[in-house]
Model the fold of this input.
Amino acid sequence: MIRRKLSVISGFLALSVITLIQVSCKSGTPSDLSGEHIIPVPVSVVATGDYFRLDEKTAICISDGSDELRQLAEYLAERLRPATGFAFAVKTTKVPPKGSIYLTFAGADSIPLEEGYTVTITKKLLTLAAKSPAGIFRGIQTIRQLLPSGIELSSVQQGEWKIATGTIVDYPVYGYRSTMLDVARHFFGVEDVKRVIDLASAYKINALHLHLSDDQGWRIEIKSWPNLTLYGGSTKVGGGDGGYFTQEQYSEIVRYADSRYITIVPEIDMPGHTNAALASYAELNCNGRATKLYTGTVVGFSTLCTGKEITYRFVDDVVREISALTTGPYFHIGGDESHATKKEDYIPFVERVQDIVLSHNKKSLGWDEISLGLLRPGTVAQYWSSAENAKRAVSQGAKLLMSPSSKAYIDMKYDSTTAIGYTWAGYIEIDKAYNWDPATLVPGIVRDNIFGVEAPLWTETITNIREIEFMIFPRLPAIAEIGWSPARLRNWDDFKVRLGNHGKRFEAMGINYYKSALVPWAD
Ligand code: IFG
Done:
């Protein structure tokens, strides 16, 4: 009898010990700020070993009543309210009360760069300081990552919301950190593009390159050339309905991107990759006959008629209308794979198109082949395949946007088991996507030559947002860290552990991510 009683007591004790451990793990009091798993890794983190606690009284205070700071406070509150159930009132004050989150432009003059920020966390106050709204926005992404991954859930979670105390000082290495979405091969609507903007901005990506035209589709309304979308936008790779953005929808995307401190870079690819335009207007063809719509995936067979004046009226109308809707400073003129354009025709075309872009107060971006021509001041060449083109661009004094196809082309399969994607640039598992440094990758190209980094997603084989997410995550956080964090702080063994702690965060955000076997995904 006694033995039975003892076994019952020990069983009860064991159960209560387990429960105690579970509760304490769940409400795990973070005490080491330097042990957090922030991506991109910050420049410096100093822990002070205590914690700051969010509760129903926590207010988000702003140092001045500027609209932009108020909008940023509201953006932060919207991120924190659903999972905590707290109100997070937004208040303007010079003296933030104990227990509040304080967003301020004050005292930030020493913070380097527009996007730099500091987060100072004590038991009593969490202060996010920056000298620009973009810096506050980048710092908010860090604050999100200092809270348990459950903060990203859309329903109220039990448990406490604590942040380890200490100081973070952070700012980016490169000022342009981007991904590209090809909406031409397959079309993706406004909501899908907004989703990409939300997910990319959570990892401090600050630009989205939209590949708006190609052989298979023209995806942006041009009022002076309506057939480009009415006919040229009517199909896609594999056939069936295509789609396009009206100018109002494109403007909605630009506004939304601006609210997430992401710059939209529109691309009209030319003189090659232009079959959709050539099918829409016979007069754009050298032989005066419109081509047929194309739904295949071959590249390099099309060219605008570089010898006709109407071509430049066409380009001018297109650049003018899109530039007027684009708040960012860049217009991407494409220029890749113009195998159907004679070199002696390609060069003056690319030079003249840059001048057209400048006349509409934008600077040109173009794939690395554009360096065959004279690059205008401010033009940036996007390195994707030819080191020779890249070096020629640098020799002209141009900066390089680094998107090496063998490292950054996220339309490549992860490995042979990946159902979607291409293989021509090789498999790109997450370690390969992470393990490169733009400043040393190409002999002769150094950090000062580099404008930034970009991970392009071409969509010949991608047909919906779930597939977009699968190819983007987890490789985009890798490219985000390459673009943001100092090379001295970057190493695969550390990154893979931090990335492993983002799996739950991806799940809380509803991301359909690739669960690479190379990453120790945390429970
Ligand atoms: N190269 C083509 C893209 C796309 C891509 C698919 C560039 C600059 C192969 N051009 O990359 O249009 O087809 O991986």
Notes: The CA atoms of residues 166 and 253 lie 37 Å apart.
